[in-house]
Amino acid sequence: MRAVTVIPGVPGSLRLLDDYPDPANEEGPILVEAISVGVCGTDIEIIEGQYGEAPPGSDHLVLGHESLGRVLEDPTGTLQPGDLVAGIVRHPDPLPCPNCAVDEWDMCRNGMFTEHGIKALPGFARERWRLQPGFAVGLDPALTEVGMLLEPTSVVAKAWDHIDRIGRRTEWQPRNALITGAGPIGLLAALLASQRGLSVHVLDLATEGPKPALAGALGAAYHSGPLDQLDFEPDVIIECTGAPVVVLEAMCKVGPTGIVCLAGVSSGGRIIDFDAGALNRTLVLENNVVFGSVNANRRHWNGAAEALSKADPAWLGALVTRRVPLSEYAAAYSPGPQDIKVVLDFTA
Ligand SMILES: [Zn+2]
């Protein structure tokens, strides 16, 4: 069968193999036919050789961690043939650490977890894959075109879950949320904020393209100026750019008892002249919290599936700015300036 692969650590090794072996039974009893995979920055980093690890005993890593497929067979009866399904990306470490031991592999403490399409497990950019029932998430049948958004949605569902948990330290009633960065993660974070009834603000550099209208369709206010000049104090900020200046301004801007969730990954290496003492003073005197968030566990995947089923399918569809047939796979990994989410289509 066909599979999109790289040799991890070797730039330029991206290939569409025609003779990749069918998924081994050990991968799980649920056999799935691929519909599509979403492409994100992690895939690009793996293709550039900066990241990624092949499964033990193999040189090749199949890409793809934002999955959507249709069940072909499930002898466990968890799902029915024809059901839409996505695969949970991360698996717990074998030790396991205290968090993996309670199925919170998103909080793994020793880094020995594995991840489909990223770290030591084959990804979902292949025509068929298999899942264990505990790592298969069924999707609303209406999500055939957009169900590959479940993985990025699970990431923001976790961010909101942890914001709630931190908020419970006191009597906390957030009224508004600021999302910095209107890429797929930022817009999905804004979707979940709007579903919570918050007054939503989205900040992004873009003044053209689809982002302002997508934010507007959620009822969110869209800002493209500097963060420190916004005329309100956010109760919650979900920072999705990873841009160092935006990260620092978010920590300074959040209102009293506010929560800043850092969900964007900076590349590092940029030195900024910054008054760290003033930031410390603000965080202490306003009881503010800044925390990082990555990945998602089963609870978050289930919450994400519910959030997508409640969302407007047309709005979700507009996040997918390009669908690339598998035969033209390389084009999917060259995002354009107006792209939000590019999808590799296995049905074309
Ligand atoms: Zn662990």
Automatic annotation (TrEMBL):
Its cofactor is Zn(2+). InterPro entries: ADH-like_N, Glu_dehyd_C, GroES-like_sf, NAD(P)-bd_dom_sf. Pfam families: ADH_N (PF08240), Glu_dehyd_C (PF16912). Keywords: Metal-binding, Oxidoreductase, Zinc. Residues 27-127 form the Alcohol dehydrogenase-like N-terminal domain. The keyword Acyltransferase does not apply. Residues 145-346 form the Glucose dehydrogenase C-terminal domain. Gene3D superfamilies: Medium-chain alcohol dehydrogenases, catalytic domain, NAD(P)-binding Rossmann-like Domain. GO terms for molecular function: metal ion binding; oxidoreductase activity. SUPFAM superfamilies: GroES-like (SSF50129), NAD(P)-binding Rossmann-fold domains (SSF51735). This is Threonine dehydrogenase. It comes from Micromonospora phaseoli.
